Amino acid sequence: MRLYGFEPQTATFSWGKMQVVVLGEEGRGRKLTYVPFQAEFDVNKRDYELATTRKGLPKITRCGIPTNAWIAKLSGSGTYTRGTHGTVYVLNEYVGNVFVVAYGYGAYGDAGRIGDWWEYLVTVREPAVFLVRPAGGAHKIKRYYLVFDNEKVVRVDANMVGVAEEVIGIPLEDPDKLIHTGEGITELSNLIKKEGK
Q1: Is the pLDDT assigned to residue 195 strictly greater than 80?
Q2: Global confidence as pTM
Q3: Tens of pLDDT along 81-115?
Q4: Are strands 98-108 and 115-124 parallel, antiparallel or unpaired?
Q5: Inter-CA distances, 60 with 1, 3, 72, 109, 194, Å
Q6: CA 160 to CA 20: how far, in whole Å?
Q7: Given this model, what pLDDT does residue 194 score?
């Protein structure tokens, strides 16, 4: 699989250091998740895979066999604004091409109650279309699409939907309208497998 949306970071723990993908943040009203990255990082390689640790948690390794799928970090992080929720949706017709591997979330305010944003680590089979809703509200940060198709990822901003549709060949609607009605989209948090199921 190819990688999108992240570079591993070095995290320091009481027992040592490790390369990880960081999702969310630590603190009240927040959830910090580390996914071990146990491979040499090269954004051009296509042989990354998800494996599991001895405790059954996800980790990223390399297998030497290239594939056309993706491991992607998708984030609703935006800007501090009271009452906003940053997240990512997938268009309903592509739900079957997406699997949520891990997630975390951050928040604004000391108690984490001002607003929040979610981050997801997902696997993606092409084609797939995501709608990103950054925290902060549409008046501060515009919503946009991420289109995974033809071995590339294309960002389509709200003001380019009509033009991009002609080029990429995938019909897109006004993102604000989709978010307002909730029709035709599924928030990635709804795809998280609950423990024990």
Answers
A1: no
A2: 0.92
A3: 788 899 999 999 999 999 999 999 998 877 767 88
A4: antiparallel
A5: 10, 10, 11, 32, 21
A6: 34
A7: 63
Q: Pick the closest to residue 168 from 126, 137, 132, 133 (CA basis).
A: 126
The domains of the chain are located at 2-191
- In sequence order, what DSSP letters do the residues of the chain get, joined into one string? -EEES---EEEEETTEEEEEEEES--STT-B-EEEEB-S---TT---EEEEE-TTS-EEEEE-S---S-EEEEEE------TT-EEEEEEEGGGGGGEEEEEEEEEEESTTS-SEEEEEEEEEEPSSEEEEEE-TT-TTTS--EEEEEETTEEEEEEGGGHHHHHHHH------HHHHHHH-TTEEEGGGGPPPTT-
Give the CB-side neighbour count of residue 169, counting CA atoms within 13 A.
Answer: 4
Beta strand 128-133 pairing with 85-91: antiparallel
pLDDT for 44: 92
Q: Which residues pair with 133 in a beta bridge?
A: 87
Give the C-alpha separation, 131 to 85, whole Å: 14
What is the chain's length? 197
Give pLDDT, residue 147.
Answer: 96
